[in-house]
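**User:** I keep going back and forth on a fold encoding question. It is easy to fool oneself when nobody else works the same problem. Could you pick a protein and write out its sequence and tokenised fold? Could you put it straight underneath, so I can go through it closely?

**Assistant:**
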Amino acid sequence: IGKTWTACVKAIHHALHVNNASVIIVSKSEPQAIMILDEIKWMMLRANIGFEPVIGDVENRTELHIINEDKRGVSVIRCLPCTTSVLAYPATLMICDEMGFWEIENMTQIEYFNRVIVSRTNETKNWTNPFFTMGQIVCISNPNAQQGVLWYIWNDTDFHQYRYCWLANPKNTKEEYEKWKKKLPADQFDSVYAATFSSASGGFITDEEYSDSEREYLINPSLVN
């Protein structure tokens, strides 16, 4: 239904209209992050708006600079994988792409979200702008059962939650929807088409529990005299 496409539009809009903006889009992997920034660049080239004068000197595979209207400041869009490299930057807008499927080394999804994602906005959320919510965190993803960070924030009253199933696209038909429902296992259908958090109860072990069991715990024993 165009989740990532919408995130690209929001990133461009924020960077264009907020002076000195820092937009960070965090993806599951580096190739996916590069793909999103490529799509942003293609959007700007295909648009009927002439973006060429506002594109700054820095334009690489993970970072795009946009010159502010005052010609003095620069706004930046950065697309990064879900690693601790994100800690290097503050964010006036943080977009988490397909976060229900993130895999983070030596951290659970929830730990990473609280320690890395939220911390990037602890200062910028206090900045004021007459038209934009500063330090905003936007999370988009297919559901991945009742586990992980997406389920965690789905139940967090500090967030606004929106759910759009496959039928939100008016070109998709109910007949196709029902056909996929019959063809796919329930958990796959719930994730891809129904936008539903399948219950993880009743199974032997959840994906999150399995990943946590394989996690490398760093133990620093004290010196023994």
Remarks:
- The two ends are 63 Å apart (CA to CA).
